[in-house]
Amino acid sequence: MKSSYKISFFVKLFIAVCILFVIAFLAITNGAAHTTLQDVWNAMVAKEGGQYYSELREIRFPRAIAAFFVGSALAVAGAIMQGMTRNPIADPGLLGLTSGANMMLAITLAFIPGASNLMIMFTCFIGAAIGMVIVYGIGMSTRGGLSPMKLVLAGAAVTAFLQAIADGVGILFDISKDVSMWTAGGLVGTTWTSLIIVPFIVFGLLFAILISRQLTILSLNEEVAVGLGQNTILIKTIMMVVVVILAGGAVALIGNLAFVGLIIPHIVRAVVGHDYRLIIPMSIIVGGAFMTLADFVSRVINAPFETPTVSLIALIGLPFFLVLVRKGGRVNG
Amino acid sequence: MRLQVEDIRVGYDEQTIVHDISMAIPDGKITTIIGANGCGKSTLLKAITRIINHESGQVVLDGKNIRKMKTKELATQLAILPQSPESAQGLLVEELVSYGRFPYQKGFGNLSAKDKEMIDWALEVTGTKDFRHKAVDALSGGQRQRVWIAMALAQETDIIFLDEPTTYLDMAHQLEVLELLHMLNVQEGRTIVMVLHDLNQAARFSDYILALSHGHLIRAGEPEEVITTEVLKEVFNIDAVIGKDPRTNKPMCLTYDLIKGE
């Protein structure tokens, strides 16, 4: 009984991975400059020089890799937040985490002009934690906690506030252009060196898989989790650290980006059900594929000009959000 | 008696909800806590099962303070079914019940033969086997409550706590749940501790009743000792006429009025 269920999950996962490869293939072979499969292969294995191959090697490969990990990080962060708080409209972008990271990014660019990618990433972790503490702090200061909708309102207010600080710092130190290049949510200018952030995201993703069973139990009901012998304080702390690493890492790569963490877990749940042992791995693949596709579309839709990825995702994300709210904020209700 | 509560005090913020209550839970019996809304009965149940912390006093299981025990180890000794848990969001019945095996599992939680055996037994005994592959959401209230009880049973504990297990159920389904608990108590020898709202159900199904008022234990004893005009006056502020259930011979509140004045 259980085994047939698991097999069907691996089939679904396999199909998702195939879709991911098709998308990644399209993203690497298509762009402002046209490329053939042969060219991609040459760029990967041969040492041929020339601007053409280096474009592939230095721009499209790292960009596709970055897109995948940003998508998977945000999707998994969203899934953890939704399960942990039993709030179906939780998302690192909507609840202040990415704007907190974004604020710290602006501050870092202002005060430490030559900051390395690693340093920017660490300040993004701090910023994501600040955003989370403020929004959840507001939630916890209300007895019995906030309803999902009120928490989103608190998130919107805090996001506006943190965004204002980021903008203020940008104007004051005359670095608005640098900041907005990040916050436009594009992967423009991603190079191999910026991928130093990826191992941290991988670490966060692996940890998320490790705690997925605990997450399912916590998502049932907190009292049930305690009754089953879960150390809920320890588990929730670990989950929050993982969320901060994933959301902060994503911002360090791409900037402020909402809705990915909201949409993907809901799509995944519709496919694999409500066990986070299945939701987390599937979110990694689907989130990564989604973001790779979004980045690809934003490159080619108006080539040779880049269309902001943020706008594209908001275009899909907002209606999705409204449908969820209309359903009364219940997960797949 | 395995489970003892000693001078337990519980409060939120500045307010004390449970005032220094001491009691012993009789082994292999059904114990029910009754009291008015807000009297602290659910709070007491949560404090005994370490869902919430207590300020002073201690809960002792087999001579050990439960606060000094590992929470996972404790979960193999006592199970708790909270009041109307959320609808488990699309999990299958079988999946939900399998989480009752959590305290016995390590790592990713692959089910052992023993786990599967216990899950099958829990589904069988609660009469939920026929819909094991259905989503918990898709069940009726009575079926869903039986599934949650199956999960608590899969936990394989001698002691089971339930916080208002009959709330939101119609009369037939309420009785169905209580009959199931009675059967578990008689046939399996489980110790059952629950909070109930309905006095007559408490009288009919309990061996032992605890009456609480404003966080104080007013009376503890067999139904005949607790379901009396005098105790109900103090606990619910009602003037009750107590008779006997013609079928079970247990005490029964036939009718009541509010006590006016004062």
From TrEMBL, chain A:
Belongs to the binding-protein-dependent transport system permease family. FecCD subfamily. It is a multi-pass membrane protein. SUPFAM superfamilies: ABC transporter involved in vitamin B12 uptake, BtuC. This is Iron ABC transporter permease. Keywords: Cell membrane, Membrane, Transmembrane, Transmembrane helix, Transport. The chain crosses the membrane at residues 7-28, 61-81, 93-112, 118-139, 151-172, 192-212, 233-264, 276-297, 309-325. It is found in: Cell membrane. It comes from Ureibacillus galli. Pfam families: FecCD (PF01032).
TrEMBL record, chain B:
The keyword Ion transport applies. Its main location: membrane. It comes from the Bacteria. Keywords: ATP-binding, Cell membrane, Ion transport, Iron, Iron transport, Membrane, Nucleotide-binding, Transport. It is a peripheral membrane protein. InterPro entries: AAA+_ATPase (IPR003593), ABC_transporter-like_ATP-bd (IPR003439), ABC_transporter-like_CS (IPR017871), P-loop_NTPase (IPR027417), Siderophore_ABC-ATPase (IPR051535). SUPFAM superfamilies: P-loop containing nucleoside triphosphate hydrolases. One of its GO terms (molecular function) is ATP binding. Residues 3-239 form the ABC transporter domain. This is ABC transporter ATP-binding protein. It comes from Ureibacillus galli.
